[in-house]
Design a protein that fits this description.
With 153 residues, the protein is of the alpha+beta class. The protein has two domains: 41 residues; 97 residues, Rieske Iron-sulfur Protein (3-layer Sandwich), CATH 2.102.10.10. A six-stranded antiparallel β-sheet has the order 3-12-11-6-5-4, with no helix packed on it. A four-stranded antiparallel β-sheet has the order 7-8-9-10, with no helix packed on it. The longest helix has 30 residues. The radius of gyration is 28 Å and the shape is elongated. The chain starts with a strand and ends with a strand. 18% of the residues are buried. Bound molecules: FE2/S2 (inorganic) cluster. The site of FE2/S2 (inorganic) cluster has 11 residues, from loops.
Length: 153
């Protein structure tokens, strides 16, 4: 709505206020859309596994003897193995050489890193290739048929 004043168009205060409010809301939206991802990147949320909490990996019956599964443990991968004898073992799945993700190789009977053919035994100990250290071992608890993995205290 405009009013004529001395032959020139002059915006009414209510229209100016509405435009200022819309501009302010647009700026607030822009600042929020830029700042939120930056803040989330700098301060990521804590996840189970980061805090020492346990992670439920699956049910016992899902794992055949002599098999393994990569699972998410916090921000890093974990590896759960069911040995040929039926025992469950869990490790950090990040190779101690250059951080590739390791896997269980039933054909070799070892934990294997595809990047440089590094090998670990089923206790997580580095046995050949370039890995300099064993894999970190996790605690495995079975409760009501569920397999829970947590950091060793
Ligand atoms: S990163 Fe695993 S052997 Fe090099």
């Amino acid at each position: 709505m405009t009013r004529k004043r001395s032959g020139a168009d002059v915006e009414s205060p209510s229209r100016r206020g509405l435009l200022e409010m819309l501009l302010g809301a647009s700026l607030a939206g822009l600042v929020t859309s830029v700042a939120y991802p930056v803040i989330r990147y700098l301060v990521p949320p804590e996840e189970a596994g980061d805090t020492g909490a346990s992670v439920m990996v699956g049910r016992v019956e899902e794992f055949a003897p002599d098999s393994g599964r990569i699972f998410r443990f916090g921000r890093k991968p974990g590896l759960l193995i069911r040995t040929a004898e039926g025992e469950f073992r869990a490790f950090g799945a990040t190779c101690t050489h250059l951080d590739c993700t390791v896997q269980y190789r039933p054909d070799f009977g070892v934990i294997w890193c595809a990047c440089h053919n590094g090998r670990y035994d089923l206790a997580g100990k580095n046995i050949s290739g370039p890995p300099p250290r064993p894999l970190p071992e996790f605690r495995v608890d079975i409760r009501d048929g569920e397999i829970h993995v947590s950091r060793v205290a």
